[in-house]
Amino acid sequence: MRILLTGGAGFIGSHTAVEIVQSGHDVVIFDNFSNSDASVLERLERILGRPVTFEEGDIRDYSRMREVLQKHNIDAVVHFAGLKAVGESVEKPLEYYDNNITGTLTLLRAMRDLGIKRLIFSSSATVYGTPQYLPLDENHPLSVTNPYGRTKLQVEEILSDLCVSDPEWSVVCLRYFNPIGAHESGLIGENPRGIPNNLLPYVARVAAGILPAVQVFGNDYDTPDGTGVRDYIHVVDLAKGHVNAAEYCSCHKGWIAINLGTGVGYSVLDIIHAYEKACGKPVPYKIVARRPGDVASNWANPQRALELLGWKAQYNLQDMCEHSWNFQKNCPVE
Ligand code: NAD
Ligand code: UD1
Questions:
Q1: What average pLDDT does this structure show over 236-264?
Q2: Which CATH superfamily is domain 2-183+232-261+300-314 in?
Q3: pTM (global) more than 0.90
Q4: Which residues pair with 27 in a beta bridge?
Q5: 87 phi and psi, to 5 degrees?
Q6: Omega before 179 cis (within 30°)?
Q7: Which ligand 1 atom sits nearest the alpha carbon of residue 9?
Q8: What is the pLDDT of residues 12-38, one digit of tens each?
Protein backbone atom coordinates (compact mmCIF):
# COMPACT_ATOMS: atom_id res chain seq x y z
CA MET A 1 0.00 0.00 0.00
CA ARG A 2 1.01 3.62 -0.51
CA ILE A 3 -0.06 5.44 2.63
CA LEU A 4 -0.21 9.21 3.13
CA LEU A 5 0.41 10.42 6.69
CA THR A 6 -1.06 13.88 7.26
CA GLY A 7 0.83 15.35 10.22
CA GLY A 8 3.44 12.65 9.64
CA ALA A 9 6.31 14.82 10.94
CA GLY A 10 4.71 15.00 14.41
CA PHE A 11 5.22 12.83 17.48
CA ILE A 12 2.89 9.93 16.64
CA GLY A 13 3.12 10.35 12.86
CA SER A 14 6.91 10.04 12.77
CA HIS A 15 6.88 6.80 14.79
CA THR A 16 4.09 5.48 12.58
CA ALA A 17 6.12 6.28 9.45
CA VAL A 18 8.89 4.00 10.75
CA GLU A 19 6.54 1.10 11.49
CA ILE A 20 4.69 1.37 8.19
CA VAL A 21 7.88 1.40 6.13
CA GLN A 22 9.31 -1.48 8.16
CA SER A 23 6.11 -3.46 7.43
CA GLY A 24 6.81 -3.19 3.71
CA HIS A 25 4.43 -0.38 2.75
CA ASP A 26 5.33 2.98 1.17
CA VAL A 27 4.84 6.20 3.07
CA VAL A 28 4.39 9.82 2.03
CA ILE A 29 4.61 12.36 4.86
CA PHE A 30 2.48 15.50 4.49
CA ASP A 31 2.90 18.28 7.05
CA ASN A 32 2.89 22.06 7.40
CA PHE A 33 5.44 22.00 10.27
CA SER A 34 3.12 24.06 12.48
CA ASN A 35 4.12 21.80 15.40
CA SER A 36 7.20 20.01 14.07
CA ASP A 37 10.25 20.74 11.96
CA ALA A 38 12.15 19.35 9.00
CA SER A 39 14.92 17.80 11.14
CA VAL A 40 12.61 14.85 11.88
CA LEU A 41 12.85 13.79 8.22
CA GLU A 42 16.61 13.40 8.40
CA ARG A 43 16.26 11.45 11.66
CA LEU A 44 13.69 9.16 10.04
CA GLU A 45 16.11 8.54 7.19
CA ARG A 46 18.80 7.56 9.69
CA ILE A 47 16.45 5.07 11.38
CA LEU A 48 15.19 3.63 8.12
CA GLY A 49 18.43 3.78 6.13
CA ARG A 50 16.56 5.08 3.09
CA PRO A 51 15.06 8.34 1.83
CA VAL A 52 11.65 9.40 3.12
CA THR A 53 9.10 10.95 0.75
CA PHE A 54 7.87 14.28 2.06
CA GLU A 55 5.41 16.89 0.75
CA GLU A 56 4.97 20.19 2.55
CA GLY A 57 1.41 21.48 2.67
CA ASP A 58 -1.68 22.24 4.69
CA ILE A 59 -4.68 19.90 4.90
CA ARG A 60 -6.93 22.96 4.48
CA ASP A 61 -5.53 23.56 0.97
CA TYR A 62 -7.79 21.49 -1.32
CA SER A 63 -5.75 21.78 -4.50
CA ARG A 64 -2.46 20.94 -2.75
CA MET A 65 -4.10 18.02 -0.97
CA ARG A 66 -5.52 16.68 -4.21
CA GLU A 67 -2.26 17.18 -6.09
CA VAL A 68 -0.28 15.17 -3.50
CA LEU A 69 -2.83 12.34 -3.26
CA GLN A 70 -2.86 12.02 -7.05
CA LYS A 71 0.88 12.41 -7.63
CA HIS A 72 1.73 9.55 -5.25
CA ASN A 73 -1.14 7.28 -6.21
CA ILE A 74 -2.22 6.98 -2.57
CA ASP A 75 -4.25 3.95 -1.41
CA ALA A 76 -5.00 5.00 2.19
CA VAL A 77 -4.57 8.00 4.47
CA VAL A 78 -3.64 8.08 8.16
CA HIS A 79 -4.89 11.43 9.39
CA PHE A 80 -2.83 12.80 12.31
CA ALA A 81 -2.72 16.49 11.30
CA GLY A 82 -4.43 18.80 13.74
CA LEU A 83 -4.02 20.88 16.85
CA LYS A 84 -4.04 19.00 20.15
CA ALA A 85 -3.68 21.17 23.27
CA VAL A 86 -6.81 21.17 25.41
CA GLY A 87 -6.12 24.50 27.18
CA GLU A 88 -5.20 26.28 23.96
CA SER A 89 -8.39 25.00 22.34
CA VAL A 90 -10.44 26.81 24.99
CA GLU A 91 -8.58 30.05 24.22
CA LYS A 92 -8.55 29.65 20.42
CA PRO A 93 -11.63 27.63 19.44
CA LEU A 94 -11.78 29.01 15.90
CA GLU A 95 -8.22 27.88 15.16
CA TYR A 96 -9.11 24.42 16.47
CA TYR A 97 -12.32 24.11 14.46
CA ASP A 98 -10.54 25.42 11.36
CA ASN A 99 -7.57 23.04 11.56
CA ASN A 100 -9.32 19.98 12.88
CA ILE A 101 -12.77 20.21 11.27
CA THR A 102 -12.30 22.31 8.11
CA GLY A 103 -8.94 20.60 7.55
CA THR A 104 -10.52 17.14 7.80
CA LEU A 105 -13.43 18.11 5.52
CA THR A 106 -11.00 19.43 2.91
CA LEU A 107 -8.94 16.23 3.09
CA LEU A 108 -12.10 14.11 2.77
CA ARG A 109 -13.34 16.07 -0.26
CA ALA A 110 -9.99 15.61 -2.02
CA MET A 111 -10.00 11.88 -1.19
CA ARG A 112 -13.59 11.40 -2.33
CA ASP A 113 -12.98 13.28 -5.58
CA LEU A 114 -10.10 10.93 -6.38
CA GLY A 115 -11.92 7.78 -5.22
CA ILE A 116 -9.53 7.18 -2.26
CA LYS A 117 -11.79 5.80 0.46
CA ARG A 118 -9.61 4.31 3.20
CA LEU A 119 -8.90 6.44 6.23
CA ILE A 120 -7.47 5.95 9.72
CA PHE A 121 -8.29 8.85 12.02
CA SER A 122 -6.39 9.93 15.17
CA SER A 123 -9.15 10.13 17.74
CA SER A 124 -8.74 10.23 21.49
CA ALA A 125 -10.02 8.68 24.69
CA THR A 126 -11.09 12.23 25.49
CA VAL A 127 -14.35 11.41 23.62
CA TYR A 128 -15.42 9.26 26.61
CA GLY A 129 -15.57 12.29 28.95
CA THR A 130 -15.85 11.40 32.65
CA PRO A 131 -15.80 7.59 32.90
CA GLN A 132 -19.10 6.04 33.98
CA TYR A 133 -17.33 2.69 34.34
CA LEU A 134 -13.85 1.25 33.85
CA PRO A 135 -12.23 -0.07 31.77
CA LEU A 136 -13.52 2.09 28.94
CA ASP A 137 -14.80 0.08 26.00
CA GLU A 138 -15.89 1.54 22.68
CA ASN A 139 -19.59 1.40 23.68
CA HIS A 140 -19.07 3.74 26.64
CA PRO A 141 -21.25 6.88 26.24
CA LEU A 142 -19.49 9.77 24.53
CA SER A 143 -19.25 13.33 25.86
CA VAL A 144 -16.78 16.16 25.59
CA THR A 145 -16.01 19.24 27.65
CA ASN A 146 -13.69 21.39 25.53
CA PRO A 147 -13.25 22.48 21.88
CA TYR A 148 -10.36 20.03 21.27
CA GLY A 149 -12.45 17.09 22.41
CA ARG A 150 -15.42 18.39 20.45
CA THR A 151 -13.37 18.39 17.22
CA LYS A 152 -12.46 14.73 17.79
CA LEU A 153 -16.06 13.72 18.43
CA GLN A 154 -17.41 15.79 15.53
CA VAL A 155 -14.89 14.31 13.10
CA GLU A 156 -15.82 10.81 14.26
CA GLU A 157 -19.49 11.66 13.54
CA ILE A 158 -18.69 13.20 10.15
CA LEU A 159 -16.80 10.04 9.22
CA SER A 160 -19.68 7.88 10.36
CA ASP A 161 -22.12 9.89 8.21
CA LEU A 162 -19.77 9.56 5.26
CA CYS A 163 -19.67 5.76 5.61
CA VAL A 164 -23.48 5.65 5.74
CA SER A 165 -23.70 7.76 2.58
CA ASP A 166 -21.22 5.64 0.62
CA PRO A 167 -20.57 2.00 1.63
CA GLU A 168 -17.29 2.00 -0.29
CA TRP A 169 -15.59 3.97 2.48
CA SER A 170 -13.50 2.20 5.08
CA VAL A 171 -12.78 4.27 8.20
CA VAL A 172 -11.08 3.31 11.47
CA CYS A 173 -11.19 5.87 14.30
CA LEU A 174 -8.37 4.97 16.66
CA ARG A 175 -9.06 6.26 20.16
CA TYR A 176 -5.64 6.77 21.71
CA PHE A 177 -5.12 6.66 25.44
CA ASN A 178 -1.92 8.41 26.69
CA PRO A 179 0.94 7.93 24.22
CA ILE A 180 4.40 8.38 25.74
CA GLY A 181 7.97 7.16 25.20
CA ALA A 182 10.09 7.43 22.10
CA HIS A 183 11.75 5.33 19.44
CA GLU A 184 14.45 3.03 20.84
CA SER A 185 17.08 4.77 18.71
CA GLY A 186 16.58 7.99 20.68
CA LEU A 187 16.34 9.84 17.36
CA ILE A 188 12.63 10.68 17.42
CA GLY A 189 10.30 11.39 20.33
CA GLU A 190 8.10 14.02 21.89
CA ASN A 191 9.64 17.48 22.13
CA PRO A 192 6.84 20.03 22.68
CA ARG A 193 7.50 23.74 22.34
CA GLY A 194 7.46 25.78 25.56
CA ILE A 195 6.39 24.38 28.93
CA PRO A 196 4.84 20.93 28.40
CA ASN A 197 1.15 20.46 29.22
CA ASN A 198 1.37 16.69 29.47
CA LEU A 199 2.96 14.73 32.26
CA LEU A 200 5.71 12.77 30.52
CA PRO A 201 7.50 15.54 28.67
CA TYR A 202 7.33 17.58 31.88
CA VAL A 203 8.90 14.76 33.91
CA ALA A 204 11.58 14.32 31.21
CA ARG A 205 12.55 17.98 31.46
CA VAL A 206 12.70 17.88 35.24
CA ALA A 207 14.94 14.80 35.01
CA ALA A 208 17.16 16.71 32.55
CA GLY A 209 17.40 19.67 34.94
CA ILE A 210 15.57 22.02 32.56
CA LEU A 211 12.58 22.45 34.90
CA PRO A 212 12.90 22.42 38.71
CA ALA A 213 10.12 20.05 39.86
CA VAL A 214 7.07 18.17 38.59
CA GLN A 215 3.83 19.67 39.83
CA VAL A 216 1.57 16.76 40.76
CA PHE A 217 -1.98 17.92 40.17
CA GLY A 218 -3.74 16.60 43.28
CA ASN A 219 -3.16 13.65 45.64
CA ASP A 220 -6.71 13.42 46.97
CA TYR A 221 -8.31 11.45 44.13
CA ASP A 222 -10.04 8.16 44.80
CA THR A 223 -7.05 6.15 43.49
CA PRO A 224 -4.52 3.87 45.28
CA ASP A 225 -2.04 6.70 46.02
CA GLY A 226 -4.43 9.65 45.52
CA THR A 227 -2.86 10.84 42.23
CA GLY A 228 -4.49 10.56 38.79
CA VAL A 229 -4.38 7.21 37.01
CA ARG A 230 -4.01 6.90 33.22
CA ASP A 231 -3.42 4.24 30.57
CA TYR A 232 0.04 5.17 29.24
CA ILE A 233 0.94 3.48 25.97
CA HIS A 234 4.34 3.33 24.28
CA VAL A 235 4.24 5.40 21.10
CA VAL A 236 5.85 2.56 19.12
CA ASP A 237 3.05 0.18 20.18
CA LEU A 238 0.57 2.86 19.15
CA ALA A 239 2.37 3.29 15.82
CA LYS A 240 2.18 -0.47 15.17
CA GLY A 241 -1.57 -0.32 15.75
CA HIS A 242 -1.81 1.96 12.71
CA VAL A 243 -0.15 -0.64 10.48
CA ASN A 244 -2.73 -3.22 11.58
CA ALA A 245 -5.54 -0.66 11.10
CA ALA A 246 -4.37 0.18 7.57
CA GLU A 247 -4.30 -3.51 6.68
CA TYR A 248 -7.76 -3.95 8.25
CA CYS A 249 -9.07 -1.07 6.12
CA SER A 250 -7.96 -2.78 2.94
CA CYS A 251 -10.29 -5.73 3.58
CA HIS A 252 -13.22 -4.23 5.57
CA LYS A 253 -15.66 -1.48 4.73
CA GLY A 254 -17.68 0.84 6.95
CA TRP A 255 -16.93 2.84 10.10
CA ILE A 256 -15.48 1.55 13.35
CA ALA A 257 -13.90 3.01 16.50
CA ILE A 258 -11.11 1.08 18.22
CA ASN A 259 -9.30 1.85 21.48
CA LEU A 260 -5.51 1.79 21.50
CA GLY A 261 -4.42 1.39 25.11
CA THR A 262 -2.73 -1.20 27.30
CA GLY A 263 -5.62 -1.90 29.68
CA VAL A 264 -3.44 -0.99 32.67
CA GLY A 265 -3.52 2.26 34.65
CA TYR A 266 -0.56 3.95 36.37
CA SER A 267 -0.61 6.89 38.77
CA VAL A 268 1.39 10.10 38.48
CA LEU A 269 3.66 8.89 41.29
CA ASP A 270 4.15 5.51 39.53
CA ILE A 271 5.36 7.46 36.51
CA ILE A 272 7.72 9.63 38.51
CA HIS A 273 9.21 6.60 40.27
CA ALA A 274 9.61 4.63 37.03
CA TYR A 275 11.31 7.66 35.49
CA GLU A 276 13.69 7.96 38.45
CA LYS A 277 14.70 4.35 37.85
CA ALA A 278 15.20 5.02 34.12
CA CYS A 279 17.37 8.12 34.57
CA GLY A 280 19.14 6.95 37.72
CA LYS A 281 18.45 10.06 39.78
CA PRO A 282 15.67 11.60 41.84
CA VAL A 283 12.93 13.50 40.01
CA PRO A 284 11.80 16.27 42.39
CA TYR A 285 8.06 16.84 42.64
CA LYS A 286 5.56 18.75 44.70
CA ILE A 287 1.86 18.20 45.23
CA VAL A 288 -0.27 21.12 44.03
CA ALA A 289 -4.01 21.67 43.48
CA ARG A 290 -6.01 19.49 41.10
CA ARG A 291 -6.03 20.64 37.44
CA PRO A 292 -9.57 21.67 36.45
CA GLY A 293 -11.19 19.18 34.08
CA ASP A 294 -9.06 16.19 35.13
CA VAL A 295 -10.67 12.87 35.96
CA ALA A 296 -9.39 10.53 38.68
CA SER A 297 -8.84 7.44 36.55
CA ASN A 298 -9.06 6.39 32.98
CA TRP A 299 -7.94 3.19 31.28
CA ALA A 300 -8.88 1.20 28.23
CA ASN A 301 -10.49 -2.07 27.46
CA PRO A 302 -8.22 -2.98 24.50
CA GLN A 303 -10.12 -6.17 23.58
CA ARG A 304 -11.56 -4.92 20.30
CA ALA A 305 -8.08 -4.03 19.00
CA LEU A 306 -6.97 -7.58 19.77
CA GLU A 307 -10.03 -9.17 18.17
CA LEU A 308 -10.25 -7.04 15.02
CA LEU A 309 -6.68 -5.92 14.44
CA GLY A 310 -4.72 -8.70 16.15
CA TRP A 311 -2.94 -5.91 18.06
CA LYS A 312 -1.77 -5.83 21.66
CA ALA A 313 0.67 -3.43 23.36
CA GLN A 314 4.07 -5.02 24.05
CA TYR A 315 6.15 -2.46 25.94
CA ASN A 316 5.92 -1.91 29.71
CA LEU A 317 6.12 1.29 31.75
CA GLN A 318 9.84 0.93 32.38
CA ASP A 319 10.50 0.66 28.61
CA MET A 320 8.41 3.80 28.05
CA CYS A 321 10.41 5.79 30.61
CA GLU A 322 13.79 4.45 29.47
CA HIS A 323 13.09 5.28 25.83
CA SER A 324 11.77 8.71 26.76
CA TRP A 325 14.95 9.39 28.77
CA ASN A 326 17.13 8.11 25.95
CA PHE A 327 15.49 10.62 23.60
CA GLN A 328 15.59 13.43 26.16
CA LYS A 329 19.35 12.95 26.60
CA ASN A 330 19.91 13.05 22.83
CA CYS A 331 17.70 16.05 22.20
CA PRO A 332 18.17 18.51 25.03
CA VAL A 333 15.80 21.44 24.91
CA GLU A 334 17.41 24.88 25.22
P1 NAD B 1 1.86 16.58 16.88
O2 NAD B 1 1.49 18.00 17.07
O3 NAD B 1 3.25 16.14 17.29
O4 NAD B 1 1.65 16.18 15.35
C5 NAD B 1 0.68 16.76 14.53
C6 NAD B 1 1.36 17.16 13.23
O7 NAD B 1 0.36 17.74 12.37
C8 NAD B 1 2.46 18.21 13.42
O9 NAD B 1 3.64 17.78 12.76
C10 NAD B 1 1.88 19.47 12.78
O11 NAD B 1 2.88 20.28 12.19
C12 NAD B 1 0.92 18.90 11.74
N13 NAD B 1 -0.21 19.75 11.39
C14 NAD B 1 -1.04 20.41 12.24
N15 NAD B 1 -1.97 21.10 11.53
C16 NAD B 1 -1.73 20.85 10.22
C17 NAD B 1 -2.36 21.25 9.01
N18 NAD B 1 -3.40 22.08 9.02
N19 NAD B 1 -1.85 20.79 7.84
C20 NAD B 1 -0.78 19.97 7.82
N21 NAD B 1 -0.13 19.55 8.93
C22 NAD B 1 -0.62 19.99 10.13
O23 NAD B 1 0.76 15.70 17.62
P24 NAD B 1 0.74 14.14 17.93
O25 NAD B 1 0.91 13.97 19.40
O26 NAD B 1 1.62 13.41 17.01
O27 NAD B 1 -0.80 13.83 17.62
C28 NAD B 1 -1.22 13.40 16.36
C29 NAD B 1 -2.71 13.27 16.33
O30 NAD B 1 -3.13 12.39 17.37
C31 NAD B 1 -3.46 14.59 16.59
O32 NAD B 1 -4.60 14.62 15.76
C33 NAD B 1 -3.86 14.50 18.05
O34 NAD B 1 -5.01 15.25 18.32
C35 NAD B 1 -4.12 13.01 18.19
N36 NAD B 1 -3.97 12.55 19.58
C37 NAD B 1 -2.80 12.76 20.23
C38 NAD B 1 -2.66 12.35 21.55
C39 NAD B 1 -1.37 12.59 22.30
O40 NAD B 1 -1.35 12.42 23.52
N41 NAD B 1 -0.26 12.95 21.66
C42 NAD B 1 -3.72 11.70 22.19
C43 NAD B 1 -4.91 11.49 21.49
C44 NAD B 1 -5.01 11.92 20.17
C1 UD1 C 1 -4.62 15.21 28.34
C2 UD1 C 1 -5.90 15.82 27.81
C3 UD1 C 1 -6.51 14.87 26.80
C4 UD1 C 1 -5.52 14.56 25.69
C5 UD1 C 1 -4.25 14.01 26.32
C6 UD1 C 1 -3.19 13.75 25.32
C7 UD1 C 1 -6.77 17.26 29.60
C8 UD1 C 1 -7.83 17.43 30.63
N9 UD1 C 1 -6.80 16.09 28.91
O10 UD1 C 1 -4.95 13.98 28.98
O11 UD1 C 1 -7.68 15.45 26.25
O12 UD1 C 1 -6.07 13.61 24.79
O13 UD1 C 1 -3.74 14.94 27.28
O14 UD1 C 1 -2.70 14.93 24.76
O15 UD1 C 1 -5.93 18.13 29.39
N16 UD1 C 1 -0.30 15.71 35.54
C17 UD1 C 1 0.39 16.22 36.62
N18 UD1 C 1 1.31 17.21 36.38
C19 UD1 C 1 1.57 17.70 35.12
C20 UD1 C 1 0.84 17.17 34.03
C21 UD1 C 1 -0.09 16.18 34.29
O22 UD1 C 1 0.20 15.81 37.75
O23 UD1 C 1 2.40 18.62 34.97
C24 UD1 C 1 -1.26 14.59 35.78
C25 UD1 C 1 -2.69 14.87 35.34
O26 UD1 C 1 -3.42 15.44 36.39
C27 UD1 C 1 -3.15 13.45 34.98
C28 UD1 C 1 -1.88 12.78 34.45
O29 UD1 C 1 -0.79 13.52 34.99
O30 UD1 C 1 -3.57 12.76 36.12
C31 UD1 C 1 -1.76 12.77 32.92
O32 UD1 C 1 -1.91 14.09 32.45
P33 UD1 C 1 -1.67 14.46 30.90
O34 UD1 C 1 -0.37 13.90 30.45
O35 UD1 C 1 -1.88 15.92 30.74
O36 UD1 C 1 -2.80 13.63 30.14
P37 UD1 C 1 -4.39 13.61 30.36
O38 UD1 C 1 -4.82 14.63 31.32
O39 UD1 C 1 -4.78 12.21 30.64
A1: 98
A2: NAD(P)-binding Rossmann-like Domain (3.40.50.720)
A3: yes
A4: 3
A5: -60, -45
A6: no
A7: 9
A8: 999 999 999 999 999 999 999 999 999
